[in-house]
Write a structure and sequence with these properties.
- This protein is of the alpha/beta class.
- It is built from 11 helices and 9 strands.
- The protein has a 5-stranded parallel sheet. A 4-stranded parallel sheet has the order 2-1-3-4, with helices on both faces.
- Helix 2 links the parallel strand 1 and strand 2.
- Helix 1 packs across helix 11 and helix 5 packs across helix 6.
- The model has no long low-confidence stretch (mean pLDDT 93).
């Protein structure tokens, strides 16, 4: 494949292994840029990108902004607080007004599933999904897969276990679609109240016993437990969740020898994972953050329509 034949990145569902590998291979080149003394290239000079965030975000927003600046694009950050949204302006009117200012790409995060797709019907600009409801978070899925491939040199044949609030997790869904396309064996583990209905139809093995799920796994991707889930009745207590589903040093003995611990962040230390595991040599949590900038640089570049130009 010579080009990435997509105008938008809305999710990893339906993406082929070849397409995912093309993004990852492009990200390798951009990671080399990040290791230079001057971490900037003129690749997207002259393009204007709007970061349209209707939800709070730290890692994803800053990672996208850094990726844009590293590529020399002009960046505009939009937050719904303090904007005309507070005056009753609709999403469609907001984005149509932004596009009238001659923008080229929109990175959007929204609490409602399907908003990135909706924007493709309103705008001519390329749309990148930075997380929509409980649907998908494709760049997080890509950076997780990149990090796994970086460590093992492959993804195919590895056994990956996703642990935590799968029901509400867009990260879990993007990881499942992407990892399955890359040939990994994927399992999910959570209390039954935090498992989506018919999740097995996504081609994953489902566990409610963490010890059984971890047995013989290569990679454990620990999802953040949103603390408000307890208040809504999904969990009896956080202490019980931590006891039954927390990743502890003792449970690591169940994994394969060369195991890897991942977490998309932010971490609730002592709830879904203990501090000693999060900070252990087997943890690649900070590597995920670094790789996120390279992967997002690759996505921005591939969707910019400038694939014929040299990266450096």
């Amino acid at each position: 494949m010579k080009k990435f034949a997509h105008k938008h990145l809305l999710g990893l569902e339906g993406m082929t292994r070849e397409e995912i590998e093309f993004v990852l291979d492009t990200a390798v080149t951009f990671k080399e840029v990040l290791e230079r003394p001057i971490k900037k290239v003129p690749t997207l000079r002259g393009l204007t990108i709007v970061n349209l965030f209707y939800e709070p975000s730290t890692r994803t927003r800053i990672s996208f902004e850094l990726a844009q600046k590293r590529l020399s694009a002009d960046t505009v950050n939009f937050s719904s607080s303090g904007s005309s949204v507070k005056k009753g302006e609709t999403l469609r009117d907001t984005v149509r007004n932004l596009e009238a200012m001659k923008i080229d790409m929109v990175v959007v995060r929204h609490a409602s599933s399907g908003v990135p797709y909706f924007l493709t019907r309103c705008l001519e600009s390329s749309i990148i999904n930075a997380g929509d409801g409980a649907h998908e978070h494709p760049t997080q899925g890509l950076l997780d897969i990149y990090t796994i491939r970086e460590k093992y040199g492959k993804v195919e044949g590895l056994r990956v276990v996703i642990v935590g609030d799968v029901k509400h997790s867009r990260v879990a869904r993007s990881n499942i679609w992407g990892l399955k396309a890359m040939g990994a064996s994927v399992s999910v583990c959570a209390p039954s109240t935090l498992l989506p209905a018919e999740i097995e139809k996504m081609g994953v093995e489902v566990f409610t016993d963490l010890n059984k799920a971890l047995w013989g796994a290569d990679v454990v991707n620990v999802l953040r437990l949103q603390l408000e889930r307890q208040e809504r009745g999904f969990l009896p207590t956080l202490r019980e969740y931590s006891r039954l589903f927390g990743i502890t040093r003792e449970r690591l003995t169940l994994l394969n020898k060369n195991y890897t611990i991942m977490h998309p962040g932010p971490i609730n230390r002592g709830v879904e994972i203990t501090p000693e595991v999060a900070d252990s040599p087997e943890s690649v949590i900070l590597a995920q953050v670094t790789n996120g900038v390279a992967v997002r640089m690759a996505v921005l570049y591939l969707l910019s329509g400038q694939q014929e130009e040299a990266v450096a």
